[in-house]
User: Which sequence fits this backbone?
């Protein structure tokens, strides 16, 4: 039975003690503004269209073949089922968010198909069983993604249950999880999943059901990792699989980026539920190392096309960076767990950075086309040899379609990432127009606020208290690290606490109608790279507020070539009109910036001329920058984020 | 029958008119100096060791299985035979160079095995027939490398015949070539080879045998390319295969680098033999475009690991550049054909640049270990996920062992690239200690010289005439583009012609004992990249003479970190003692250079700090650079070629 009222529920709901708690189901609602428009686009175009894409790609037919209701061959993709599950998870959030009846009908239809496809013993993987046969189940954990698909099934089932009250998928998922829990473990067989995902899913299933055996199985997989099980099975190089080093001893993420970060999210879940402070501290250090040495300026993760993998520290190429959309989503999930566990605003800032600059670039403004790969530069003359290559433009779907439904589930659940309940009140981590509340309305203990803002186009955030407990409470607002000089205007009866940790806390007895205004300074700023970040030596990137900016060739005046420019970062940057070709799209309020640059001319006809004939600095040009996430929504052409800088002394 | 005297013969011997002609068999001998040591190492370690590597890898056993003399399964690598052929080609040159009896015995043994493995109808591919069956021959030209292997067979056979007089392999090769010529063509079946190589081999077989049908078949393959045959066969993306654009219309190399450049070499061969000036001009333009927009500063080719391929113009990452050793060898082959066709010293300079800085880095100083991939930077903290990754050090062999025997055949035939016969005399293109002669000694028309030099460690090249025709003749010495201010000392009875084209020509009546001394200025020089070459913006690379230099961390003083340095290119660069750990190796005279740099310190703990906190320039450091080709011959650790530059005004 579905509840009549929509109530978006948290994807992650720790059972162990955490500094911050997710808001309960229905307590967070985005009602408009920048994210409101993104979420509506996600519903109307992506989620409904997603069903059609899954059908076209044969993923739904796979279910019928497995159920025996249709004859034929399943698709070759061994993890095809996971795309269905991720889409179903997104659908569940969306039903929780809006009560969409059309999606509810689709949810029930597809859930019934999945249940029909499940084996008697609980096993479920349409492609594996049909292509490889039931006797080869679990025979190749390295490649066959059975546990990966199971993880996505479990996550979708939990979302469906929490957000819609339906139990159909949860029954399927727990049957499969029971099979997994009895199959693997000290009493059962050994195993390391080739693609992590099952770990966080099993921890969450423990949280949802209270059954500790799911947690124990997750712990088994986490503890066996890094001990050569995959190498023994298939002779593979363990690096790619994050299987070179035991999980607790890892100091730097490596190998396939999505694998590495999903694994870390699962490890952090386990640290929370086992109240293992040492493990949590190691996970925090691992996250810091990743963001410091292996993240692009966009927050994007994964330096290499080969193996979709992390590279060496500071190996961060602008043009061939992989920065898979899924890896950024994985990092949001990991940062969210660390935020709940520790309460450190640093993780909320990372989530914001990742969402705007590494997740959103992966989907078109109209919600119908995707990037799998998100580099910081595309050159003129690029020849496209792969459908994932952004030089070929956004794609409606991919053969390996992990990214599109991953974006869908992230956006549909986004309101749950905006705010949390802290010890005595509410903490706002993201600034999205909407309503957020914590505490128990029945007992008069509820603190509820409405947020109104045009952020990130504008830095003004108005928070109005709509319900307040009679007892003293707290309201915490995150202050981004770039927002020095911010102004907070709050009623005098509220006490303002120290904000050194990246947030400002108001304490006291709140009253309905209390209005707090946070003004974040939206001054454009240039950033540089670490001295070891060779690919961006001598160059700058441009931010305004949380948004990274990029130059697209199509926005420049004739004669201005973005590939032969140097920017003057000591000159002022001005807000500029958004190009009409861009503002005509469902883009929300998109700021554009005008900056001063100079043309660069080769000093010689030689490809590598002598130092004395270094590139010559030519005439001045004003160039236009748009938010990086909005690139490639018109023609897909040359684009760049990093630009050589000319200091004022030059 | 083998001639009793060694006589290294030219790999390429155009039949059509060319500006330069290869020296005849036995007319070019490297006797010592830098290249003499490389060649001896190639003979004693690489070529003899190569037989053992082929045996260990199962390549020789494949022949016995195909011949039916051994039972078992062939190796899975579909182009395994080509490694045997390339090694045999190298062996033939080496027998031609030195008369090595041990290699001659191996040549005859392996040739007999190959002959035994050949089918009745002439077809020969051990892996294809054994694994896929004879009825699937030619069924998948996209992937199955039958024509690629045939091309290497033909090249090896021609080398064997020209250098050793043995006809065994040539009989095998012509039987196979006859089958190919009757199978493919307007009267036969359509087809485009997935991996070019057969084109230049068939043209050379025409040159060797005079049979025009081989040239016609090469033309057929070249003309059918770029017309969708591979896409029709397998649905592949044509870019990777250089099959997107017809060969005559190509303006920029793309896709898999070795494929693209082997194809171009074959197209140039065809342009020569058909006396097609327009096609030759297009090939010259294509070469220029490649070297200007798609070559690393080392001359290395292929920007991407994925697809071992060229990237967009100016996509030239320092750290993940692929720069496959084979691609550089392919470029040497192409440039050699263009040099013969046009006589332009520019191509000889390209060959020198490629040999020192893109081919030689692919083999260890002791000739026993290889790099497949040759980037310009390896970082600390690199995690190795692939045996080809240079961060893991040089390897004795590779699963895909194309590079090692390709290096062997290039080195063993090197003397033939040093000099050519021009209209009335001799042209020296490379400076390698040895003896070179042209013309007919029988008729008294021979011009012969001995070259003595420590080049490239030293810029002094002494050329002594040892035989001279009675009629006036010419001797041309190439002058590298970096050698402005060179000094040429020649007897007064010789007239000196204009040298604007990159060479200086002496004309007159030569006499034995005439001594010409060319002094090339070996001043170290820094170079910069094109403004579009973003990966090296603001950085410099260091050359001295033809040699590119690199920093290895192990050569620096404690406390000097090559990953956080900026060089002062306006300060003098000094010759420095070669590190004893390096000079202890069979390295020849290896120059080392000391240059002035300053430490760089992060301006902030943030990974991407604000422009105002750009990296801080710290204390001065003297750093040591060694020739790039000599890196990774001790411990394999951090290395870099490009270094940020601090202009004098800073």
Assistant:
């Amino acid at each position: 039975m579905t509840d009549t009222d929509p109530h978006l529920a948290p994807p992650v709901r720790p059972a162990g003690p955490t500094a911050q708690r997710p808001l309960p189901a229905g307590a967070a609602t985005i009602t408009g503004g920048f994210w409101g428009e993104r979420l509506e686009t996600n519903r109307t175009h992506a989620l409904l269209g997603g069903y059609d894409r899954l059908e076209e790609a044969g993923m739904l037919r796979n279910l019928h073949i497995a159920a025996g209701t249709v004859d034929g061959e399943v698709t070759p993709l061994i993890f095809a089922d996971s795309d269905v599950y991720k889409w179903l998870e997104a659908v569940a959030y969306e039903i929780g968010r809006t009560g969409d009846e059309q999606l509810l009908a689709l949810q029930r239809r597809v859930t019934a198909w999945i249940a029909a496809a499940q084996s008697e013993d609980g096993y479920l993987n349409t492609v594996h069983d049909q292509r490889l046969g039931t006797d080869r189940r679990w025979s190749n954990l390295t490649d066959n993604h059975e546990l990966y698909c199971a993880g996505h099934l479990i996550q979708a089932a939990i979302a469906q249950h929490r957000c819609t009250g339906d139990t159909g998928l949860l029954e399927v998922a727990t049957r499969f999880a029971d099979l997994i829990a009895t199959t693997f473990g000290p009493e059962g067989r050994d195993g390391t999943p080739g693609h992590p995902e099952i770990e966080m899913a099993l921890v969450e299933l423990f949280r949802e059901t209270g059954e500790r055996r799911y947690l124990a199985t997750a712990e088994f997989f986490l503890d066996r990792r890094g001990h050569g099980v995959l190498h023994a099975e298939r002779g593979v190089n363990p690096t790619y699989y994050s299987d070179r080093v035991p999980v607790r001893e890892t100091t730097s993420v490596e190998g396939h980026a999505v694998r590495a970060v999903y694994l870390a999210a699962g490890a952090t879940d386990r640290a929370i539920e086992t109240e293992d402070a040492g493990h949590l501290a190691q996970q925090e250090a691992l996250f810091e190392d990743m963001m410091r040495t292996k993240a692009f300026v966009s927050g994007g993760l994964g330096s290499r096309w080969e193996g979709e993998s992390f590279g060496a520290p500071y190996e961060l190429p602008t043009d061939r960076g992989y920065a898979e959309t899924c890896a950024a989503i994985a990092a949001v999930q990991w940062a969210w767990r660390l935020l709940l566990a520790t309460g450190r605003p640093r993780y909320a800032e990372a989530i914001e950075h990742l969402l705007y600059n590494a997740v959103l670039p992966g989907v078109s403004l109209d919600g119908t086309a995707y990037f799998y790969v998100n580099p910081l530069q595309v050159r003129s003359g690029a020849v496209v040899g792969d459908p994932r290559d952004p030089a070929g433009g956004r794609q409606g779907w991919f053969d390996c379609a992990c990214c599109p439904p991953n974006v869908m589930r992230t956006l549909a659940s986004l309101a749950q990432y905006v705010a949390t309940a802290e010890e005595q009140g509410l903490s706002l981590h993201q600034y999205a127009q909407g309503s957020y509340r914590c505490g128990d309305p029945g007992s008069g203990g509820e603190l509820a606020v409405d947020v109104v803002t045009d952020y990130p186009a504008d830095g003004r955030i108005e928070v109005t208290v709509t319900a307040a407990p009679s007892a003293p409470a707290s309201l915490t607002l995150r202050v981004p690290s770039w927002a020095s000089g911010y102004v907070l205007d709050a009623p005098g009866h509220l006490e303002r606490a120290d904000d050194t940790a990246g947030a400002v806390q108001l304490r006291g007895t709140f009253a309905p109608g209390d209005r707090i205004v946070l003004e974040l300074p939206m001054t454009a700023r240039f950033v540089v790279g670490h001295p070891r970040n060779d690919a961006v030596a001598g160059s700058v990137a441009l931010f305004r507020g949380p948004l990274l900016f990029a130059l697209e060739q199509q926005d420049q005046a004739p004669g201005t070539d973005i590939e032969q420019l140097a920017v003057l970062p000591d000159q002022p940057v001005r807000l500029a009109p958004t190009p009409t070709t861009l503002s005509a799209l469902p883009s929300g309020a998109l700021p554009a910036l005008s900056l001063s640059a100079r043309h660069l001319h080769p000093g010689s006809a030689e490809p590598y001329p002598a130092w004395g004939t270094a590139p010559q600095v030519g005439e001045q040009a004003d160039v236009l920058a748009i938010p990086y996430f909005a690139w490639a929504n018109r023609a897909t052409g040359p684009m760049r984020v990093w630009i050589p800088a000319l200091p004022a002394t030059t």
Q: What stands out?
A: The longest helix of chain A spans residues 33-56. Chain A touches chain B through 77 residues (CB under 8 Å). The mean pLDDT of chain A is 95. Chain A has 16 helices and 22 strands.
